[in-house]
Write a structure and sequence with these properties.
single chain, about 350 residues, alpha+beta, name from scop, 5-stranded mixed beta sheet, 14 helices, 7 strands, about 70% helix, rod-shaped
């Protein structure tokens, strides 16, 4: 029985998931993120490649045709290199800016808006040499289940990528052999085509691997944050309150309401009973309300107390089984009786008033 209580068999509650996010503990696949970033980078190269190559060609042309090393002194070095830095910046900065933005968006897509409050809290224990050494040993210990899984994943991923890359090269071997003796322009075009096909194939493969890894990481994460039945009960108590305490509060509230209701019985005009199980106290004040009002009602013990209070205060008690049941079921305390009961109640009130000489 104790083992069953300690087994983590229950899915994590929303509150538990929120706590884990605050600690920075979320499901995240590095393979999935890397594959998408690599694919986006390849797409950028395809889209911006012609412009980047044109700038590089102009740089080479300027260097080979207009730059004379004999005319350059140490004082002129900065002025000579400045155009190259400018052109290099134009080629790379925009590319890396797009790549950084894409990486941030991809990570946001995978993790959502994450602000790990707990992870940001300073923890001096992490800075101690013993803690640092322990963390390092845990990372390099390949015999731990998680490290073993990561190692096997890396081996499988490397093997598959190598096989696919080799297959692409074998498929294009005739084009590669045809480069022997070809002019440089043709060589660059063919090599660029082979490299791009190789990278595109690898990207597609890595995306597939990344999706599989993402599913695995989600499964492992959900498994790691599962809760025991006792943890779920404790969280419910902390969130909603202890059921026993809530039951006592409700009981106390009901007692107060009953006392308030009973205090109105002495002001009633009549109590309708069935005769023992149901009791309903009615009061009619035509100056305040258009129809009689139920000021108290109850069954069994409460009905007995209503009858007792009525007897002690000289309130007439009239037996009418159908009316008592209908009033109890249809009308709440302090509620006006419905129209379908007007006639039956009017007859009883007329009888009571006649008895009192009103």
């Amino acid at each position: 029985m104790a083992n069953e209580q300690n087994e983590k068999t229950e899915e994590a509650t929303p509150k538990r998931r929120e706590k884990e996010r605050d600690k920075g503990h979320i499901a995240k696949s590095q393979d999935f993120t890397s594959s998408l970033v690599l694919t986006f980078g390849l797409g950028l190269i395809y889209a911006m490649g012609s412009g980047m190559l044109e700038k590089l060609k102009n740089m080479l042309f300027q260097t080979l045709t207009h730059l004379n090393p004999n005319e350059i002194s140490n004082d002129d070095a900065i002025s000579v290199l400045a155009p190259y830095f400018k052109n290099y910046s134009e080629i790379t900065l925009l590319f890396f800016a797009f790549l950084a933005i894409s990486a941030a968006l991809i990570l946001r897509f995978q993790t959502g808006a994450l602000f790990a409050k707990e992870a940001l809290k300073p923890n001096l224990e992490r800075l101690s040499p013993s803690s640092a050494m322990k963390a390092l040993l845990e990372k390099i210990n390949i015999f731990k289940p998680r490290q073993m899984v990561e190692l096997i994943k890396s081996i499988i991923k490397t093997t598959i990528v190598a096989m696919v890359g080799f297959n692409v090269i074998i498929k294009r071997k005739n084009d590669l052999f045809g480069l022997i003796g070809a002019d440089p322009t043709t060589g660059f075009i063919v090599m660029g085509s082979v490299i791009f096909e190789l990278l595109a194939t690898i990207c597609i493969l890595l995306i597939i691997i990344g999706i599989i890894d993402k599913k695995y990481q989600d499964w492992e994460y959900n498994k790691s944050i599962k809760m025991t039945k006792q943890e779920v009960k404790d969280e419910f108590k902390n969130t909603e309150g202890d059921p026993k305490i809530k039951s006592k509060i409700r009981s106390f509230q009901m007692k107060i309401l009953q006392q308030k209701m009973m205090s109105k019985v002495k002001d009633a005009d009549v109590v309708v009973v069935n005769p023992t199980h149901y009791a309903v106290a009615l009061m009619y004040n035509p100056e305040k309300v258009p129809a009689p009002v139920v000021v108290a009602k109850g069954v069994d013990f409460i009905a007995f107390k209503i009858r007792e209070i009525a007897k002690n205060n000289g309130i007439p008690i009239v037996e009418n089984k159908p009316l008592a049941r209908s009033l109890y079921k249809l009308v709440e305390v302090d509620g006006i009786i419905p129209q379908e009961l007007y006639v039956a109640v009017a007859e009883i009130l007329q009888y009571v008033y006649a008895q009192k000489g009103r």
